[in-house]
Fold DUF418 domain-containing protein.
Amino acid sequence: MQNQPTSAPHTEAPSGVAPSSAAPSTAAPTVAPVAQSDRILLIDILRGVALLGILLMNIPTFSMPDNFIEAFTQNPDSTNFWVFTGITVLFEGKMRALFSFVFGVGVLLFLAKKEQTNRSAVRLYYRRMGWLIVFGLVHAYLLLWFGDILYGYGVCGLLLYLFRKVRPLYLALGVPLIAIVGFVGSTLFNQNIAQKHLAYLDAIRAQQTGVVLTASQTQALADWRELEKTMLPNQEDAARNTALMKGSYSSVAKRVRPLSFLFQTTYLPFLLPDVLALMLLGMALYKWGFLSGAWPTRRYRLTMLVGYGLGLPLVCFSVYYALQHTPTREAALAYNDTHPISWVSLIYPVQRILLVLAHSSAIILIVRAGLLKGLTRRLAAVGQMAFTNYIMHTLVCTLFFYGYGLNYFAELQYYQLFYLVGVIWIVQLYLSPLWLKYFRFGPLEWLWRSLTYWKWQPMQRNAPVPALPAV
């Protein structure tokens, strides 16, 4: 979840894009959340876009059975096929990358003024990240969303503090380094799956001939079965999982909690480096002036043109390749068995960065030109309440799709899911600015800040802000 800035040495420029440096003060520094006038509008807008975009990627996981894409990945005449393809090309991975960018920026903004308070900044920062981890655990195990990002972002946040003063070039180098490490790691991981699958097939063939299986063949059957239950469900597993998701709260928990635990333990070392690298890149882009809107217009235009010009052909090719070679579970396993190294997967990190930079440049150009002012103001409000709005996604989707709610799990066509996405977007685009008209923070933002500062923060806009002691 995005770490919203609580203090920054910048004020919003009249255009709402580029911040200007605050005048130095000789007064003793105080520790308090950021004032509304000190927010950077562009960062809130980008955060709002990323938050709403993430719902496009999350809602199928809330609502669809395992292996659901097999029903339409080989049918170009299907509406589902084209909706899936369009969302994959334009948004898959890009919204999470943008969200990670602004999280990294949020860390810099939070620490900027508080660096003057030395130890208190460290205490506040790590308390803030600690509470984010706690919120992630509640989100995953009580609200039952195994796609939670709060826990992982909180863990990454514990490391980000160490990089706050690193030069931008070195921060940005984390992306290609992690991409290379990730490629090697995923290759070894897929080779391990292929090894288990081939051993499983060999054991099945031996079993069908009626011979007594060896100990290694018996173990191969058990290993593959465990992998199926956790990562690669077959048709029977998919039907069983669907039945669990359409059951009671305890039934859904039986399905969701083991997955949450798996992602927060076994697979966490494989997932965090990519997220951390994106956060570091966000910090670098802010220090370079890209994410603060400080670049000249022509550089944003050039970034947008290069990003779309190179990124779109690359992502279109990779999506086409996947649809041709791995449209189903069985096809993906067969491909993995015969391709020890999938070189085409190197396209993903390249096209993702190109397109997220292009998307960001397009948004910045729109804001700079003063276009869609009503929409951008609403997006800024959504971004300012990103924590609350993110949890709202979970509450709406779980109550709509899970069995203990309206029980629409596995009941809708893929394209129909995005009608609900549109409704949620509209509600949040109208509700967020309305809420912020009367209150300083979103409900969860208020709670997070109060826990961070260990003091109840004023909620209503007309409430006086208590003076905190200087440190």
Remarks:
- Strands lie at 10-12, 19-21.
